[in-house]
Write a structure and sequence with these properties.
three-stranded antiparallel sheet, 6 helices, globular
C-alpha cells in the first residue's frame, strides 16, 4: 500500500475513512431531524419518499421503481414505506395510463401538506445542526461529495426545492 496525501493514509484506508465519516455525518444529521419526524409520526424513509415525490414536479407522482432507484431502497423496503404512507392517506396509487399493468405513486393533498411541514422543520433542524460550520466549507464539501459520487457512477437525484408545491391534482 502506497501512502497518499499529507496524512499518510493508504488508498484503502482513505476509502474506509471517507466511508466512516459519511456514515457518521449521516447519523448525526438524522438525529438532528428526528424530533421533526417524530412530531409528524414519520420515519426518515417516509421523509425520503415524500421528498422525492415533492421534488418530482407536476403532477407530483413517480413510479415505485423510479422512487427505489432515486432513494437507493430495495423494492421490499420501499413497498413497506409506501403501504405505511398509503394507510395515512399521504400517497395514493394511480394507474399508469402508459402501462396498465403498472401504477405511479402520487402525493395526496394531505401528503403535500405534511411534506411541506416536515421539509420546513427538517431543513431548520439541519441548518441548526450545521450552523457552526462556515458556509464556504459546506459549499466546498458539497462540491467534493458530488465529485466523488459522480466518479463512482452515481447520478444525482433531483434536489429538493424550497418552493411551495400546489396541491396534487385529482386523478383523471
Amino acid at each position: 500500500m502506497t501512502p497518499i496525501g499529507s496524512n499518510g493514509l493508504s488508498d484503502e484506508l482513505l476509502a474506509l475513512a471517507l466511508s466512516q465519516h459519511v456514515v457518521r455525518l449521516h447519523g448525526l444529521l438524522e438525529r438532528a431531524i428526528a424530533p421533526a419526524l417524530a412530531a409528524q409520526g414519520l420515519t426518515a424513509a417516509d421523509l425520503d419518499v415524500l421528498g422525492a415525490l415533492r421534488a418530482g414536479g407536476s403532477p407530483i407522482q413517480l413510479r415505485p421503481k423510479e422512487l427505489a432507484t432515486r432513494l437507493l431502497l430495495t423494492t421490499g423496503g420501499l413497498s413497506n414505506v409506501l403501504r405505511r404512507l398509503e394507510a395515512r392517506d399521504l400517497v395514493s396509487r394511480v394507474p399508469d395510463p402508459q402501462d396498465r399493468r403498472s401504477h405511479t405513486m402520487r402525493l395526496t393533498p394531505a401528503g403535500v401538506s405534511i411534506a411541506e411541514v416536515v421539509t420546513t422543520e427538517a431543513t431548520a433542524a439541519l441548518h441548526g445542526a450545521l450552523s457552526t460550520v462556515p458556509a464556504a466549507t459546506l459549499r466546498d464539501t458539497l462540491g467534493q461529495l458530488r465529485s466523488v459520487l459522480g466518479a463512482i457512477g452515481d447520478t444525482p437525484p433531483a434536489m429538493p426545492t424550497t418552493r411551495h408545491v400546489q396541491e396534487a391534482p385529482e386523478p383523471a
